């Protein structure tokens, strides 16, 4: 696992797309970071540390290549 920090306005859904290329990976983020019970569509605190899996079947490398390391924030 590696650790990232959130930026202003990011949700778990945003992180799932940014880091996994796959919105369904939001559930992995919840599980890996013990974020049960929070609104996955709500903005996370700025600079919150989030654990991200480096190897997982949920990772969509084609999508990540198209995003080209962009920070994803849905507003």
Give me the secondary-structure topology.
Elements: E1 2-5, H1 12-20, H2 26-32, E2 49-52, H3 61-67
Antiparallel strand pairs: 1-2
Radius of gyration (Å): 11 Å
Number of strands: 2
Query: What oligomerization state is this entry in?
Result: single chain
**Count of domains:** 1
- Unreliable runs: none
Helix fraction? 25-40%
Element-by-element helix/strand order: EHHEH
Decide which structural class fits the backbone: alpha+beta
Query: What is the strand content?
Result: 5-15%
Distance between the termini: 28 Å
The dominant shape is globular
Q: Mean of the pLDDT scores?
A: 89
What do you see in this structure?
With 75 residues, this protein is an alpha+beta fold. The protein has one domain. It has 3 helices and 2 strands; from the N terminus they run βααβα. It has helices spanning 12-20, 26-32, 61-67; strands at residues 2-5, 49-52. The chain has a two-stranded antiparallel sheet with strand order 1-2. Helix 1 packs across helix 2. The longest helix has 9 residues, at 12-20. It starts with a strand and ends in an 8-residue tail after the last helix.
For the structure shown, list the relevant keywords.
75 residues, alpha+beta, two-stranded antiparallel sheet, 3 helices, 2 strands
Quick overview:
This protein has about 80 residues and is of the alpha+beta class. The chain has helices spanning about 10-20, 25-30, 60-65; strands at about 1-5, 50. The longest helix is centred in the first third of the chain and has 9 residues, at about 10-20.
């Amino acid at each position: 696992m590696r650790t990232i920090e959130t930026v202003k306005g990011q949700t778990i859904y945003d992180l799932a797309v940014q880091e996994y290329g796959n919105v369904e990976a939001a559930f992995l983020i919840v599980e890996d970071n013990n974020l049960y019970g929070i609104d996955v569509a709500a903005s996370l605190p700025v600079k919150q540390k989030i654990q991200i899996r480096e190897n997982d079947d949920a990772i969509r490398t084609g999508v990540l290549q198209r995003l080209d390391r962009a920070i994803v924030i849905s507003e």
